[in-house]
Design goal:
By secondary structure, this protein is of the alpha/beta class. It contains 14 helices and 20 strands. It folds into 3 domains: 169 residues, FAD/NAD(P)-binding domain (3-Layer(bba) Sandwich); 121 residues, Guanine Nucleotide Dissociation Inhibitor, domain 1 (Orthogonal Bundle), CATH 1.10.405; 97 residues, Polyamine Oxidase, Chain A, domain 2 (Alpha-Beta Complex), CATH 3.90.660.10. Flavin-adenine dinucleotide binds next to helix 1, strand 2, helix 10, strand 15 and strand 19.
């Protein structure tokens, strides 16, 4: 890329930062525009004034198989801030059985999955055999299976003979967390792809990975430092109002205050619901690109609770049959530790709760924690409720058709984001992967290697 050329990335969420970090580390300086006064988009942290603790806008979980994210963290030198399970396991609280574990033994894939299923006491023997059959079907699954692409997770599970008990105990907590959507509404195709990636890849890929520091410290601040170090800049509080198109090529970005920032390459890394505002008005395939903006969204509610004591022994527990799906013990995960107990509860696909006042959400959380931990769980000394109305785009069956490629058809305009075509639901891994792909495309363009869009 010649020094006179300039790359502008719109949006400092993880997709935009990943694109900018990749390009910066390859010697290409980048200007990043972000409408807010902080980066990170839907993954950020702040300091809770009462306790002084770092609080995330919601607990984010990864698996060890998130290779794009691991590469990004290596580039910004923060991978050491991940807390990774030594051997993959999931703990569930079952209303009748109490705490139960599903451990994945250290055996070659796919024997590790079979071993895990056969050895758990979470399910009856008949249900374990049905799970094994589903594992076998998963290994032979084809992405072009016509049933899979139109079916919901619930339909797919029923088709594979999963019992109501297995669906409630295992599949619902898992699918809602991964997909941020209810099993009746979430795409079977995307879910099956995630399962394959987690459980049928390398043995350790399904290990749970949790940030041991705040999301901003892990993903954002070091990325901004790297971008600046390589001659780029992050302009906060700068909202793009459009992309300027002249003679079929993008020439810059128009800001809300009317100023124009010249650019020889633009990467739009804004969420689906904002893309309409920044895409050039007169561009081929605009209507197709905007289809994803019409997809429904799914909310996430997070509840942070503080206690006088740290009574939770596990790092993470899936709660069966209640409002909260997952509860995390920040004290066991975080690098710094702290006084007393700090628990984060996650309610994904929180369609019913998102409009409720905090006291209703807190009452539901306290009820659930009392059911799991006894009286102590219901007596927090401090709480913070965070509602993300637009947690992610809802991964409904058929939505894959509307997710656009990162290539737009305009040779120097690319789009990144967890909602673009990544093969994954709206996740960090998808966002980061799309950002890296845009960086690769920018370099390919430079080398005239860019593929045409079919
Ligand atoms: C509470 C919660 C919990 C989650 N948990 C998980 C999890 O456990 N695991 C996981 O993998 N994922 C999780 N996710 C999803 C994950 O956070 C997102 O997939 C990811 O952060 C999306 O990144 P992005 O860059 O694609 O989009 P965004 O984060 O939305 O970033 C887009 C950026 O563009 C900016 N922008 C928009 N319009 C303009 C404009 N006109 N001009 C300038 N800037 C603009 C926005 O302000 C924003 O900063 C969770 C999300 C939430 C909300």
């Amino acid at each position: 890329m010649s020094p006179s050329e300039s790359v502008v990335v719109v949006g400092a969420g993880l997709a935009g930062l990943a694109a900018a970090v990749e390009l910066s580390s390859r010697g290409i300086p980048v200007t990043v525009l972000e409408q807010h006064r902080r980066g990170g988009g839907r993954a950020y942290s702040f300091t809770d004034r009462t306790t002084g603790d770092t609080v995330d806008n919601g607990q984010h979980a990864l698996i060890a198989g998130c290779t794009a994210t691991m590469r990004y963290l290596d580039l910004i030198s923060t991978r050491r801030f991940l807390h990774t399970q030594r051997s993959p396991s999931l703990t569930f609280h079952h209303p009748a059985l109490g705490l139960r574990r599903l451990r994945i033994p250290d055996l070659p894939s796919p024997l590790h999955l079979a071993g895990g299923i056969l050895s758990t006491d979470l399910f009856s023997l008949a249900d374990r055999l049905r799970l094994l059959r589903l594992g076998w079907a998963l290994a032979r699954l084809r992405d072009d299976d016509p049933f899979l692409s139109g079916a919901s997770v619930a339909e797919w599970l029923r088709r594979h003979g999963q019992s109501a008990e297995t669906i409630r105990t295992l599949w619902e907590p898992l699918a809602i967390a991964i997909m941020n959507e209810r099993t009746e509404k979430a795409s079977a195709l995307l879910f099956a792809r995630c399962l394959r990636r987690a459980f049928l890849g390398r043995t350790g890929d399904s290990a749970l990975v949790l940030p041991s520091v705040g999301l901003s410290e892990l993903f954002v601040t070091p990325a901004c430092a790297l971008i600046s170090k390589h001659g780029g800049r992050i302009i906060l509080g700068a909202r793009a109002a459009g992309t300027i198109l002249r003679e079929g090529r993008v020439t810059g970005v128009r800001l809300e205050d009317g100023a124009e920032l010249p650019a020889s390459v633009v990467i739009l890394a804004v969420p689906a619901w904002s893309i309409g505002r920044v895409l050039p008005e007169e561009m081929p395939r605009r209507a197709a690109l905007l289809k994803a903006a019409e997809l429904p969204v799914s909310p996430i509610v997070s509840v942070h609770l503080w206690y006088t004591t740290d009574f939770m022994h596990e790092e993470a527990i899936g709660i069966v049959g209640r409002t909260i799906q997952w509860v995390f013990n920040r004290r066991k995960i975080e690098e710094k530790g702290g006084q007393g107990g700090h628990i984060t509860c996650v309610i994904s696909a929180a369609h019913d709760l998102i409009g409720e006042p905090s006291r209703i959400i807190l009452a539901a959380a306290s009820d659930d924690l009392r059911a799991v931990f006894g009286k102590a769980g219901g007596d927090p000394i401090h709480s913070v409720v965070i509602r993300e109305k637009r947690g992610t785009v809802s991964p409904i069956p058929g939505a894959e058709r509307d997710r656009p490629d990162q290539i737009t058809g305009i040779p120097n305009l690319f789009i990144a984001g967890d909602w673009t075509s990544t093969g994954l639901p709206g996740t960090i891994e998808g966002a980061v992967w799309s950002g890296k792909r845009c960086a690769d495309l920018v370099q390919a363009r430079q080398l005239h290697l860019i593929p045409s869009l079919s």
